[in-house]
Amino acid sequence: MRILHVETGRHLYGGALQVRYLLEGLSARGVANVLVCPSGAAIAGASAVFCEAVHEVPMGGDLDLGFVGRLQRVIRETRPDLVHLHSRRGADVLGGIAARRVGVPVVLSRRVDNPEPAPWARLKYRLFDRVITISEAIRHVLLAEGVSPERVVCVPSAVDMNAWQGTCDREGFQAACGLAPGERAVGVIAQLITRKGHRHLLTAAPAILAAHPEVRLLLFGQGPLEAQLRARIEDMGLTGQVRLMGFRDDLERILPCLDLVVHPADMEGLGVSLLQAAAAGVPLVGTRAGGVPEIIGDDEAGVLVPPGDAPALARAVIDLLGDPSALRRLGEAGRRRVAARFSVEAMVAGNLAVYQELVHG
């Protein structure tokens, strides 16, 4: 079986990292992979060994109509049994049109839970033989918009447990993050975009820091809200206590040293950073948004609060930081939960089952 994968992300995290895991797992199972990605994308070099061919092509976003022709040429050249579109922006509708015009079955992965107008959703998703959602929450969004249940399958995202089993190098962590001995760290790992809810944590920050003055709030990630968040932190007089840490490619060293990971999102398809934190044994505070409860469970891996409720967020963080035994218990339970429910093996098997159904019937 030959599968052509389309991934538009330029950096190797989030959805692109999931594709990297999938390519490796499929290759080990004898599937021939062809990857289409933007020129210079990190996934090209990271996944080449698991691919029969890698095609780096120009991708200009949703309005780049020329992408249809460019993808059609690659499909005709490589003759895959199926096309799997892994990205929304610039690849879903245009990629679906390209595959349909060539007459190849096409699958779309959907990783976000933001709703779409129901008439558009019903029309759009007819392009795809299957839509694979990374959480049940996303699947329910599509079903509520009138997409046929037979067309939508949930295959949760995965985390490589082996990558997150390291122990904390306290001195190295303190040096990397500018922490003094005795200071504790609460992390947020998310793009600096509105839907991730950083503003709610900033609203909660004075109460958290008053109760636990030894805590430092570390915001890992990059995005268009960086200047806005930095200005608000300065206006609140919290520059030394709340820090923008930028994008880090060494989270496997950072996560084991965090006391707590907070995810204050308003909307979230699933939350790969939460999977990584739980795999590292870090307890979580998250919102009841999208797929976040599927990771945390019924207070198994952490505590859930309503989206946008800064006082509830503050109480949850304050209470957990004051209860070391709860932190240990939740961290251990979260590691077990992720290993059981979100393994790479299960994710690869789930995607492969969809391919086999469409290709072999």
Automatic annotation (TrEMBL):
Keywords: Glycosyltransferase, Transferase. One of its GO terms (biological process) is carbohydrate derivative metabolic process. Gene3D superfamilies: Glycogen Phosphorylase B. InterPro entries: Glyco_trans_1, Glyco_trans_4-like_N. One of its GO terms (molecular function) is glycosyltransferase activity. Residues 178-337 form the Glycosyl transferase family domain. The keyword Cell cycle does not apply. Residues 14-161 form the Glycosyltransferase subfamily 4-like N-terminal domain. It comes from the Bacteria. Belongs to the glycosyltransferase group 1 family. Glycosyltransferase 4 subfamily. This is Glycosyltransferase involved in cell wall bisynthesis. It comes from Ectothiorhodospira magna.
